[in-house]
Design brief:
By secondary structure, the chain is an all-alpha fold. The protein is built from 21 helices and no strands. Keywords: Ligase, Membrane, Transmembrane, Transmembrane helix.
């Protein structure tokens, strides 16, 4: 007669892999909810993921696959570059903090490479939570805009943006809205998408796109339309579906024009952006213009990179190096208005030199060498959207951007590579 005591249930859940799988699911849910609203959950999520890995009853058999995983090693090499910078850093306190802050580069891939993998239905559920959750946060934020549209337009006039109602920084929020749009469309075609779920996902995708345009987030709109262009090219050259490609190109041409004519926020954003660029080009006062200050930061970063080409100044010393260079050429920007680089590629160039940029490009482009990654549309959309966004912002330098990238890299890329490797089946995996 089988015992139903908590201890026996726990042992059975461990033995058949359900404990590991459910812990990984809990880590994913915590990660998504943390990104949307509860920041503390983001810090807990990697710890739960590591616990899921340790709870795998076939952990020993999974370790060789983890050690062979190129996506795991790519993120580990980024962490290794940070360790290497300890030999020449001068900002020891910052360096020690970065060692702790960037530990998810090791922990998150470990979780997705060693824990019992999520089932297809569970992965679908995590995706739905991300898409629908973002649509709800976006709709609530749009509601705040509708309460005072004139006040929001005045924010745009001074280069400001409306953060999400859950206080997500506007750049990361806009990127997440773009991801929600494309992921929502992809998930609606999943085998797990019943008519109700399909309708909810399509409605959520539409909501994300509407919020992105009405609130006129520059970075989000940039990646939205770059991805649309890439999809049009893909359907034309790879899928040979001319009508779909033409429809996407029509949307690419007509969407921005329609938004410009119909939405005052978009018109103000375009005018504000062009004026910012003009301020920089003509050498005027840049203090109150965000785009102009970013252009000045790029010029400052270029000078630093020229003087430290191979290993850079070190991740912990990047801020100090920027501020010192501003002392030589300040572009008329007061100290309180001097900004960091706002370009992830340039950030790796000054912090890690040519070595850092090379490793970073490997992280972004290396997975595409694998056929299984190229066939996964979620991977392609994730890499292109984040890769484009990082041309205009240093996403990894704020914790929410770092967590977003590392979580999706593990959930999509590490998990996809693992699924393409032969592994011993477990009852939980087969469920």
């Amino acid at each position: 007669m089988m015992s139903n005591s908590p201890a026996s249930v726990f042992r059975q859940a461990y033995a058949d892999g359900r404990l590991s799988q459910y812990l990984l699911l809990l880590a994913c849910v915590a990660g998504v909810v943390g990104l949307l609203a509860a920041r503390a959950l983001v810090a807990i999520s990697p710890l739960v993921g590591v616990a899921a890995a340790l709870a795998n009853p076939q952990l020993r058999q999974a370790v060789p696959g983890w050690l062979r995983s190129s996506s795991v090693w790519l993120l580990a090499l980024l962490y290794g570059l940070l360790l290497l910078s300890g030999f020449y850093t001068t900002a020891w306190d910052v360096w020690r903090h970065e060692l702790y802050r960037q530990l998810p580069l090791i922990g998150v891939p470990l979780a997705f490479a060693l824990a019992v993998p999520l089932s297809g239905r569970q992965r679908f559920g995590v995706g739905v939570l991300f898409v629908v959750g973002l649509a709800l946060v976006g709709a609530a934020t749009l509601g705040r805009y509708l309460l005072d549209p004139a006040g929001f337009i005045s924010l745009i006039n001074v280069g400001q943006n409306l953060p999400s109602i859950t206080r997500i920084f506007h750049i990361h929020f806009s990127i997440m809205l773009a991801l929600a749009f494309y992921f929502g469309l992809l998930l609606s075609r999943s085998q797990w998408a019943t008519p109700i779920w399909r309708g909810l996902l399509l409605a959520s995708a539409a909501t994300a796109a509407i919020v992105l345009h009405v609130l006129a987030y520059r970075t989000g709109l940039l990646v939205f339309y770059v991805m649309l262009l890439a999809d049009a090219v893909y359907f034309l050259l790879v899928r040979r579906q001319l009508l779909i490609s033409l429809a996407l190109l029509l949307l690419l041409a007509g969407g921005p024009l329609l938004a410009y004519r119909a939405l005052p926020s978009v018109r103000e954003r375009v005018t504000n952006t062009l004026y910012d660029i003009e301020q920089f080009q003509q050498g005027r006062d840049l203090n109150n213009y965000s785009v102009a200050r970013r252009l000045a930061a790029w010029e400052t970063a270029r000078t630093i990179a020229t003087n430290n080409p191979w290993l850079g100044v070190g991740a912990a010393d990047a801020y100090d190096a920027m501020m010192r260079q501003y002392e030589y050429q300040d572009f008329g920007i007061r100290p309180e208005n001097r900004v960091m680089i706002h370009n992830q590629y340039l950030h790796y160039l000054i912090s890690g030199g040519i070595t850092g940029v090379f490793l970073w490009l490997l992280v972004l482009l290396g997975p595409l060498a694998q056929p299984s990654q190229r066939r996964n549309p979620y991977v392609g959309h994730f890499l292109l959207i984040l890769g484009t966004a990082m041309l205009v912002d240093s996403l990894l330098e704020l914790q929410i951007g770092f967590n977003l990238f590392v979580f999706l890299y593990g959930f999509l890329i590490v998990a996809t590579e693992r699924s393409s490797q032969p592994t011993p089946p477990t009852p939980a995996r087969a469920a």
